[in-house]
Design brief:
- The chain is mainly beta.
- It has one helix and 16 strands.
- It has a 16-stranded parallel β-sheet that branches.
Length: 215
């Protein structure tokens, strides 16, 4: 199994973000957003290059089709952040606290999600390549119709996952602390799981095959 190529973000010296609010199709280069309140702002189509967003509020922020390149999102928090159709390339997401974040149709390449908790993550029809989820909690993530290649779930908790119609290649689930799959267990071809996980998932596999288990 091919291992994921991890993101290695090395930021230059950053200038402080001057405020004023995000604007659609904005261009943000080499900036540090420290404790900024971005809730409800519209940065759709914006480009963030060599940026750091630290402890920012992102409730209901509209960042559709935005591009995050060689950037770090550290301690961001929010509910309903809309990143549908966005591109994240060479990005680290650290200790995020997010709920209902929309990443459907997004492209994630060389992305590290480390620590934190994300509830109801919507990655339907997204494309994930060289993505590592490490030490985080993913509650009811939706990978429906997504394409996952060289994706690793390391020491994380995954509950209620939906892999319906997903396509997997070199997806490593073996070291997930907890793995619960609600739908799409039939789409796990291309993934590797541990023996213990196989035993835990046996009832789900049996139900998928229409096998009734009785003592």
């Amino acid at each position: 199994m091919a291992a994921a190529r991890r993101a290695d973000v090395r930021l230059p010296e950053l200038a402080a973000y001057g405020g004023g609010g995000l604007v659609p199709d904005g261009d943000y280069d080499g900036l540090e957003f420290a404790g900024a309140d971005l809730a409800g702002q519209d940065g759709s189509g914006a480009r963030f290059l060599d940026c750091a967003l630290r402890d920012c509020a992102m409730d209901e922020a509209r960042l559709t089709a935005a591009r995050f390149l060689d950037s770090v999102l550290d301690g961001v928090r929010g509910v309903g952040t809309d990143l549908s159709g966005a591109t994240l390339r060479d990005v680290e997401v650290v200790d995020a606290r997010l709920g209902g974040v929309q990443l459907h149709g997004a492209v994630l390449e060389r992305v590290l999600v480390r620590g934190g908790k994300v509830d109801y993550l919507n990655l339907r029809t997204a494309k994930l390549k060289d993505v590592v989820f490490e030490g985080c909690v993913l509650a009811e993530p939706d990978f429906g119709g997504a394409v996952l290649e060289r994706v690793e779930f390391r020491d994380c908790v995954v509950t209620g996952a939906d892999f319906s119609a997903a396509r997997l290649k070199d997806v490593d689930l073996r070291t997930a602390q907890r793995l619960e799959i609600a739908r799409g267990v039939d789409r796990l071809a291309g993934a590797v799981i541990s023996t213990a996980q196989l035993l835990d998932l046996a009832p789900v596999f049996a139900a998928e095959l229409g096998v009734r288990v009785e003592d």
